[in-house]
């Protein structure tokens, strides 16, 4: 089923996210990565920053929800995800590839506001659910991509092949200096 903006608004509300508007894809600016690199394969020299070790959780750990929420929020605040109104961009799947008839998922960036009361894990919002985690556990595990409105940073909370979940930030203008050769 293809989602509407009204559907997305309703689905995101339990997580503490207020839908502002769906973005025109051409207006979304994301930080650049070198050719052949994704956020997951980028290194510190490309502006990648990782969760602290105490923020990385096994998908089945009892404290996974608290670690994921706390790690995400710390990195979002520290690396500039939010504007002054706690707004940012969230990547959302409006329709899966088998529903679009094109062979591709209908992915859109939406402008959202983080409300005072939020929880990306306990809310169990399907739009924030990891499909990869279903291979590792039956419990709800979040996975999502976000970006700042100014295009300076991108944030991914993701599930890794080793069964852990953590957050990474891509912020190239803060990349570590390249070693001189």
How would you characterize the overall build of this protein?
It is built from 3 helices and 8 strands. With 181 residues, it is α+β, with helices and mostly antiparallel strands. The radius of gyration is 16 Å and the shape is globular. The termini are far apart.
The helix/strand order is HEEEHEHEEEE
The main sheet comes to: 8 strands, antiparallel
Beta content comes to 25-35%
Unreliable spans are: 177-181
Please count the helical segments.
3
Task: Outline the fold blueprint.
Elements: H1 5-12, E1 17-22, E2 48-50, E3 57-58, H2 64-78, E4 87-95, H3 97-100, E5 106-114, E6 144-147, E7 154-159, E8 164-170
Antiparallel strand pairs: 1-5, 2-8, 3-8, 4-5, 4-6, 6-7, 7-8
Task: Sum this structure up briefly.
The chain has 181 residues and is α+β, with helices and mostly antiparallel strands. It has three helices and eight strands.
Based on the model shown, name its key terms:
181 residues, alpha+beta, 8-stranded antiparallel beta sheet, globular
């Amino acid at each position: 089923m293809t989602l509407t903006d009204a559907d997305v608004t309703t689905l995101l509300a339990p997580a503490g996210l207020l839908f502002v508007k769906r973005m025109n894809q051409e207006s979304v600016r994301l930080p650049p990565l070198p050719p052949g690199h994704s956020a997951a394969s980028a290194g510190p020299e490309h502006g990648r920053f990782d969760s602290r070790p105490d923020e990385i959780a096994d998908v089945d750990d009892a404290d996974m929800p608290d670690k994921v929420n706390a790690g995400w929020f710390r990195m979002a605040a520290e690396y500039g995800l939010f504007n002054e109104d706690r707004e940012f961009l969230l990547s959302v799947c409006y329709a899966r590839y088998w529903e679009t008839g094109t062979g591709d998922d209908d992915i859109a960036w939406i402008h959202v506001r983080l409300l005072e009361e939020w929880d990306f894990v306990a809310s169990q919002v399907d739009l924030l659910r990891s499909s990869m985690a279903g291979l590792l556990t039956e419990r709800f595990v979040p996975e999502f991509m976000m970006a700042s409105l100014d295009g300076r940073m991108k944030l991914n909370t993701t599930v890794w092949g080793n069964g852990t979940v953590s957050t990474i930030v891509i912020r190239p203008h803060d990349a570590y200096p390249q070693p001189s050769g």
